[in-house]
Design goal:
The protein is of the alpha+beta class. It contains 11 helices and 17 strands. It is globular, with a radius of gyration of 22 Å.
Length: about 450
């Protein structure tokens, strides 16, 4: 297995359940230290309503392979990033989880994912509720965990349930969050640090699953290695690696290799292994856009609360859109202080009436309405990424029109002047460079994902 992110860990658990003991090859970088002073953590993530740097983990950007000599990348108009971190990007993700709708899988050679979802949720926690979302997005667990509600979210959900909208399905967010005790006896205790690093380990990180399986002797883990190429042989697959300092690594052989290195790194590895240089491959992406939502009345704000997404809105249509709503958190306070040029202490005193009405929305378009990313691997090993073509703005504008028309239902107004449509890849919802097909041709893979 190559990689320690969520996909790789799901594979590892499936193999272990079948009585096998997989070998995991991983770059496995981790933070040098974990600062725990909240002020230091917040300073490491200086966001604004129209500025969004990479999200740190305990003040460090170690999960991201930025300006990485081992993975040379040139991005022009895109913001996709690989990871060499232990646990992949699950070290910094927002923990939001939803299954695909059945109709989205109709063209896949494998359409019944129910058992796979249930298998994953045996080791990944799911905090959510039985609500209107469940008709389109089953929970796949009998008893979901519960994350605490803030007054803001309580008021919003009450309004959404009071008069359902025919074109919008709303419900509590689904989060990979240990609101009850995790295997180490820790749980979410509402520190409000979700955006910069949870000291309790309450947000699921696949590195914890790797550690648990390795500690129980159920898998072998080899960190500090970058897989450079794969070679199919008559008896299996040869794996060539390098060390993270650029030196020559070990060579491994296996009957099967599961590549779980992330969208960009997996694409790079397969193209290099096929020696498919200067040939374009398309990555699908869900266009990412953000905007504030101003509620028609204020609600009390609370600094110590879960600051991950609190509500999901699903907009109906031939190509539905997904919206995640965030309530008050320290980042919003700091953005307010920056905009008003107030000292942080003054902003903390003056902001509650304003921020008690303010919600932050992250939206994702369907990949069919998004430009995607065209990538190709140069002979010098540089991966070039450019936008795939097409303008997502008309589809985003259509979403905003629906929300404006639904203002009486939302009891809120989208602030379209502060709408930001980000470059392809910014939302980290991308993949599909080797699409699964029943009869694969070219760069497609078969029903088991084999190129």
């Amino acid at each position: 297995m190559i990689g320690s992110g969520p996909s790789g860990v799901a594979c590892a658990h499936a193999l272990v359940e079948r009585g096998l003991r997989p070998l995991v090859l991983d770059a496995g970088r981790g933070p040098a230290a974990k600062p725990v002073e909240p002020e230091e953590l917040w300073r490491s993530f200086p966001v604004d309503f129209d500025e969004l740097p990479l999200k740190p983990s305990f003040g460090s950007l170690y999960p991201y392979a930025v300006d990485e000599p081992l993975l040379p990348t040139r991005a022009e108009g895109v913001t996709a990033v690989s990871s060499l971190g232990r646990g992949g990007l699950s070290s910094v993700w927002g923990a939001a989880m939803l299954p695909y709708e059945e109709r989205e899988l109709e063209s896949w050679p494998v359409s019944d994912m129910a058992q796979a979802y249930r298998s994953v949720l045996r080791f990944v926690p799911l905090a959510g509720e039985r609500d209107a979302l469940e008709e389109r997005f089953p929970l796949y667990v009998d008893s979901p965990q519960r994350s605490p509600l803030t007054p803001q979210v309580t008021a919003l959900l009450a309004d959404l349930r009071r008069a359902p909208h025919p074109g919008i399905v709303a419900g509590r967010s689904r989060l990979a969050l240990w609101s009850e005790r995790n295997p180490h006896g820790e749980r979410c205790n509402e520190l409000g640090l979700c955006m910069v690093g949870c000291p309790r380990g309450a947000i699921y990180n696949s590195a914890a699953s790797i550690d648990a399986l390795a500690g129980a002797g159920k898998l072998d883990y080899r960190g500090g290695l970058l897989v450079e190429a794969l070679e199919e042989q008559s008896h299996g697959v040869a794996v060539r690696t390098r060390t993270l300092d650029g030196g020559e690594g070990e060579r491994f052989e296996a009957e099967r290799v599961f590549v779980a290195a992330g969208a960009l790194a997996t694409t790079r590895l397969v193209l290099r292994s096929l020696e498919a240089y200067d040939r374009s491959v398309r990555l699908l992406d869900s266009t990412y856009f953000t905007f504030p939502l101003l509620r028609h009345r204020s609600a009390p704000v609370r600094a110590n609360s879960v600051s991950l997404a609190q509500v999901f809105l699903e907009l109906a249509g031939e190509r539905p859109a997904h919206l995640q709503i965030y309530g008050y958190n320290e980042l919003m306070l700091r953005a307010f202080a920056a905009r008003t040029r107030l000292p942080l202490r003054a902003a903390r005193l003056l902001s509650p009436p304003v921020l008690g009405r303010m919600l932050y929305v992250q939206g994702y378009l369907h990949s069919d309405l998004s430009p995607g990313i065209e990538v190709r691997l140069g002979r010098d090993g540089t991966l070039l990424g450019v936008p795939g073509g097409g303008d997502p703005r008309p589809a985003v504008d259509a979403v905003m029109r629906k929300l404006r028309a639904a203002r009486p239902y939302l009891r809120a107004t989208p602030l379209t002047r502060m709408l930001r449509v980000w470059e392809p890849g910014k939302g980290f919802h991308l993949g599909g460079s080797f699409p699964m097909q029943a009869r694969p041709e070219g760069f497609a893979s078969d029903a088991l994902g084999r190129p």
